[in-house]
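YM 10:42: Dihydrofolate reductase sequence, as discussed on the call
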Amino acid sequence: MPELLIDFITSLDGYASADGWPGFWGLEGPEYLSWLGEAPEGDYTVLMGATTYRVMSGFAAAGEEGTDVLADLSKVVFSSTLTEPLTWPNSRLVSTDPIEAVREMKEKGSESLRTIGSLTLCRALLNAGLVDRFRVVVFPVITGATGRERIYDGYPDVALEMIDSRTFDGRIQLLEYAPKVLSGPPGT
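YM 10:58: structure's back
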């Protein structure tokens, strides 16, 4: 069965973005960009919601470094507000329930799936028990005053078993886990 990977980039304090900061918080170094260029999970279908689609396709249209890799990837956008045709290449709009659509993709499809951003979608997929792997790339900044989109607000309790870790450019941390949604704190 294809896997589903949740894939986040975050500040150390758990924000997905921050007002006034550039993409990757301006810290994308050559090792990290090279790794992105190698297209890890490049054969995976990318899942995202409307907000992430708007932001990422805007970055791509502006030529933001690191987004060129995404142009050739197959992308599924879950939205009830966007309409076709989508302008970002290889993007398909799905307006049905994302949980059921992803469940069907995993059961009947042959390609593995991964997310980009899309905090609400990721939270719903995790709650539904559909996530096989959870990857977080942590950038060494704290954006307490300007941070937007706290990633883990509204998440259930989740146990994480480390699968892999890596450091890029002496400062950016990649952490990969197998998640297990808990019914509450251990021992309760």
